[in-house]
Amino acid sequence: MPKIYKDQDADIKVIKDKQVAVIGYGNQGRSQALNMRDSGLKVIIGSIKDKSWDKAKEDGFEVMDIPQAAEKAQIIFVLLPDEVAPDVFESKIKPYLKE
């Protein structure tokens, strides 16, 4: 039988002081970024300069190019369309990953 985790099973304090980057600000990126910010996490957005960039700014996020966000963050959520995620990861995120 699978284990079911609930809110009381998690301790947000473990990541409270970490910088979180959400890469992509479409349907998934926006929803998750807003939820994480509402939970008290420090969230930045990595995006290309398009309407998603503008929407993230409008929503009050610090927005930057994807490589800058990847370099600045300790936790990275890649929430991009499947067809672009592998290339973006390899070229714009992977070079900035830290141990």
TrEMBL record:
Coiled coil: none annotated. GO terms for biological process: isoleucine biosynthetic process; L-valine biosynthetic process. It holds the Pfam family KARI_N. PROSITE patterns: KARI_N (PS51850). Transmembrane segments: none annotated. SUPFAM superfamilies: NAD(P)-binding Rossmann-fold domains. It comes from the Bacteria. One of its GO terms (molecular function) is ketol-acid reductoisomerase activity. Residues 2-99 form the KARI N-terminal Rossmann domain. This is Ketol-acid reductoisomerase.
